[in-house]
Design a protein that fits this description.
By secondary structure, the chain is an alpha/beta fold. The protein has two domains: 120 residues, NAD(P)-binding Rossmann-like Domain (Rossmann fold); 192 residues, Dihydrodipicolinate Reductase, domain 2 (2-Layer Sandwich), CATH 3.30.360.10. Helix content is 32%, strand content 24%. The protein has eleven helices and 15 strands. Helix 5 links the parallel strand 5 and strand 6. Helix 1 packs across helix 10, helix 4 runs parallel beside helix 5 and helix 8 packs across helix 11. The protein is globular. The protein starts with 5 loop residues before the first strand and ends with a strand. The relative contact order is 0.16.
Length: 351
């Protein structure tokens, strides 16, 4: 029997909280009943603008509301585990932004709490269910490019504006755990095999970075992943690319290939001497030739993944491949192995 309404609380009302909110608002079977944020000014603006009836500066108070079925965790990375475990113990289903946690020990605790309390822990990897990714998988599944042999993914831009992205203790790393992790999570929905080994290379943080000398984590990262059946993939994430968000997936088969551009495929071309308010995420300027996004959050997959999470709760379904807590854990495990490879200067075998 399905739920007529899924009642949602949003924990964290900054950048990620905003696009979760806008995705939920597209859905007729969702009611956003509460939000929480330590920043009272931001919280009050968020709730007032969006007619959210309950606001809490302490997320633990939000979790006490008996009318909440599911929460979105949109706080900085180092708080994911604390918020998710508390939510599980309160009996709430959980949507957690990427990365699942900043370390594997915390991620394991999150999974255990969800299992022990019989709630769903769902991993918000938007690339996996962006409309273009879904279509690419459909073409692959019907044999359009033959057998997949190799994949290459990249997410890049010129750097995070968040204060929480500047220190490893708060976010778990740098460009790999913030950007490259999208590619890891997404490619696992195309190649349904375990990753057997990784070879990683990153800049060293601070003065060893290419561009961002005050950033503790790496500003550039790349890795080669080898799957158990011999197929390979390259993932890259960097903060040294100007011109706005660059999200690309390339899939190479023995009978063709597919190239997906999630962020730079706008049907609009604009030339402006004066500039204007917004073109694409992370773009430094809107002067000259630009290609402004149309329904950017839909195109990047946020609306589709949130709709899937709501259906999981409404109909008591398991999350699709790529969007479960276990998928988030495996993606993080691969990322941590890449960091280990860079540190030790050798290929790392995954157990």
């Amino acid at each position: 029997m399905s739920k007529e309404k899924v009642r949602v609380g949003i924990i964290g009302t900054a950048f990620a909280g905003g696009f979760h909110l806008r995705a939920y608002k597209q859905l007729p079977h969702v009611e956003i009943v509460a939000a929480a944020d330590m920043n009272a000014k931001r919280l009050n603006e968020f709730c007032s603008l969006n007619n959210i009836p309950n606001r809490h500066e302490d997320f633990r108070q939000l979790l006490k509301q008996k009318d909440i079925d599911m929460v979105s965790i949109c706080v900085p990375n180092f708080l994911h585990a604390k918020a998710a475990i508390a939510a599980a113990n309160a009996g709430k289903h959980i949507v957690c932004e990427k990365p699942l946690a900043t370390n594997l020990k915390d991620a394991e605790k999150m999974l255990k709490s969800a299992n022990d309390n019989k709630v769903k822990l769902m991993y918000a990897e938007d690339w996996a269910y962006a409309p273009a990714s879904i279509r690419a998988r459909e073409i692959c599944n019907e044999g359009g490019i033959g057998d997949i042999l190799y994949m290459h993914t990249i997410e890049s831009h010129s750097g995070s504006h968040s204060m929480f992205a500047q220190k490893v203790s708060l976010c778990g790393g740098g460009a790999l755990i913030h950007l490259g992790i999208h590619g890891i999570g997404c490619m696992r929905t195309f190649i349904d095999k375990k990753v057997q080994s990784v070879i990683g290379k990153t800049t060293g943080g601070l003065n060893k970075n290419l561009l961002h000398k005050k950033l503790e984590g790496e500003d550039w990262a790349c890795a080669i992943l080898t799957f158990v059946d011999g197929r390979v993939a390259i993932i890259e994430g960097n903060y040294v690319t100007f011109g706005g968000l660059n999200d690309c997936i390339e899939i190479y088969g023995n009978k063709g290939n597919i190239k997906v551009n999630l962020s730079r495929s706008s049907p609009l071309s604009v030339y402006s001497l004066e500039g204007y308010s917004y073109a694409v995420e992370k773009a430094e300027t809107t002067k000259g030739w630009t290609f402004p996004a149309v329904e950017e959050e839909w195109q990047l997959g946020y609306w589709k993944e949130i709709a899937m999470f709501v259906d999981c709760v409404r109909f008591n379904q398991a999350p699709p491949r790529g969007l479960s807590g276990e998928d988030g854990f495996e993606t993080l495990r691969i990322a941590m192995a890449i960091y280990e490879s860079e540190k030790k200067g050798k290929e790392i075998k995954l157990k």
